[in-house]
From TrEMBL, chains A, B, C, D, E, F:
Annotated InterPro entries: 4CMD/NDH-1_regulator (IPR052512), AhpD-like (IPR029032), CMD-like (IPR003779)
Gene3D superfamilies: AhpD-like (1.20.1290.10)
Protein name: Carboxymuconolactone decarboxylase-like domain-containing protein
Domain named Carboxymuconolactone decarboxylase-like: residues: 43-123
An example Gene Ontology molecular-function term: peroxiredoxin activity
Amino acid sequence: METTDKSALQKGRDYAAKNLTPNLEEILGERYDDLVPGMSESLIEWAYGRHYCRDGLDPKTRQLCTVAALTVLGGQTAPQLKINIEHALKSGANKQEISETIWQMAVYGGLPAAINGLNAAKEVFASHEAQ
Amino acid sequence: METTDKSALQKGRDYAAKNLTPNLEEILGERYDDLVPGMSESLIEWAYGRHYCRDGLDPKTRQLCTVAALTVLGGQTAPQLKINIEHALKSGANKQEISETIWQMAVYGGLPAAINGLNAAKEVFASHEAQ
Amino acid sequence: METTDKSALQKGRDYAAKNLTPNLEEILGERYDDLVPGMSESLIEWAYGRHYCRDGLDPKTRQLCTVAALTVLGGQTAPQLKINIEHALKSGANKQEISETIWQMAVYGGLPAAINGLNAAKEVFASHEAQ
Amino acid sequence: METTDKSALQKGRDYAAKNLTPNLEEILGERYDDLVPGMSESLIEWAYGRHYCRDGLDPKTRQLCTVAALTVLGGQTAPQLKINIEHALKSGANKQEISETIWQMAVYGGLPAAINGLNAAKEVFASHEAQ
Amino acid sequence: METTDKSALQKGRDYAAKNLTPNLEEILGERYDDLVPGMSESLIEWAYGRHYCRDGLDPKTRQLCTVAALTVLGGQTAPQLKINIEHALKSGANKQEISETIWQMAVYGGLPAAINGLNAAKEVFASHEAQ
Amino acid sequence: METTDKSALQKGRDYAAKNLTPNLEEILGERYDDLVPGMSESLIEWAYGRHYCRDGLDPKTRQLCTVAALTVLGGQTAPQLKINIEHALKSGANKQEISETIWQMAVYGGLPAAINGLNAAKEVFASHEAQ
């Protein structure tokens, strides 16, 4: 019998492997676990096992909401915004949906946040076209 | 022949009347136009004529993205968050979708923002049940 | 011979007494010095002795810039925003200049911040008219 | 044999029971689990099982750091700030240490954030004295 | 007969051409209209047609208020802060007025925001001296 | 007889010389006093003379609280965060205590803020190891 906890981490791992980047936990672990033991496992459990894989909202809408939030949180979250624009593409959102989400944030977070968000999107889209 | 501009304000009025609150501009005007002449018209044009009625993203997803953004912007936007939870319901989102959107923001904006967002949602949902 | 420091606190006291509220340090002291010894003196020195009384920008423009900043910092600074709207009036700004400053912040801090700012201004202006 | 995950939730429950409020998960569950199933469990696991009970930093310093963070995040986190001032007292911090932590934040988050933080502390301390 | 809307966009274009950068809309359009059709027009209408060209506050004070707001919004708005320092110079503010505005923000947004703002100003001023 | 003020600046100078960087005021002065006359003196007085050297909280805990605050304030304060990680090391905090402080902020400021904070710590720690 599986405990609730166990499935939180396991569900997170399954979600990331299926929807995002198979080796996401490994990448995080190599970068951060030396400094903060268990950081990679904890992040996968919390973000993907405890949030993204929940019922009630599809992955694509979840990712667009994340893009919206990271846009209004400001340009300082640019690295995370870019990663989540990638994740939004992987979750089935197209470029227009992502751009529209970001631009709408001008209403709530102001023009600078929206413009910085569009700049991040342009970078991600350009790197895809260059491939 | 209509100019692009003209349709921005008109489209905003049409969008608000159809999807949100028919007399939104009037409510805003009574409250703010004395202090800031033209504020109500300008808000309708910008928020609804220049953003929500754009192609490429449906009103319901737009509203969920707005709920996400207002959640991470923090508890100080509680009045606007409540209004946009109402607008999300009017745009076809159900309570679960709204609650999931808010709770997911714990990952990006931290637990306090998500908890304040859930409190706002509880208030809106309770006022609906009381009707 | 006065030291530079000495004049920082003294200048702050003189500025507050002349331009704002004669007993500002006393009000702050009664409220906070028990918890944080010297808080009132330190605030007067820093805010008014080290900033507002500097050369190069007039008190009225300084206060409008403060109103702008507190508006975009969000509704959580509403108490300080109201105090600084009072200070802006005392520094010679009129209601229109204050309202225009706040509304313009919609461009940079988003609509919710600007609307919360206008609400704060309406409260301050109403309390003046009630006198 | 316990899995890592299982202990994350269990450690969080043990930490909260020992250091904070024995029925914290229950209180959260009654308030939020209807809206967001599993929210209380998830919060205990993440905040207390994955963070506070970690090695390398004592609970008291952790709580003072949290008070610092909630202070600069602004007055909108006042409810959470008050709860964490309570938790800081329970973790062995005295009123002076808490007040000093908050006031220092004036340097980094500005005076309004620090003053709102002191107001929150005054409320918590007053409720203790009233008991 | 001109509609109100029409003049909002037209006024914005006239304001930008006269006070800021004649080809601002074109620059924005080349950069963003492919991603977000109509973005450049919409920005000019909202920021300049609906805000800066309003009565009741002169362009120079408006720009100083914008510099204040972008300073407290944090270093992530550095690109926009630099552009608006340029616009403040074009609107008649001198270097001292701009520096004083930024430094005063240490009181409200904290020292890091003010220091990042001064760094942005130094870059803009240096690029002028290099010309 | 020394005035209270005088000792505020002098105490700040003594604190910085003893605990941080002997020539901190000089470094700041060379960089900023031309733009904002007296900035370096004012910063030393406020941050170190009016805050860090106060009774009631030890320098090490003060620095960890500062690291916590700068982490949740977001990646835009990265330069100041790095300086204060250096100051925390000089105040007796070890790498683990600093890393734990930053990672805990994921609970309050969200994952992006914590990850950006860890990145800043990694840079500082790496520069020490390279020496």
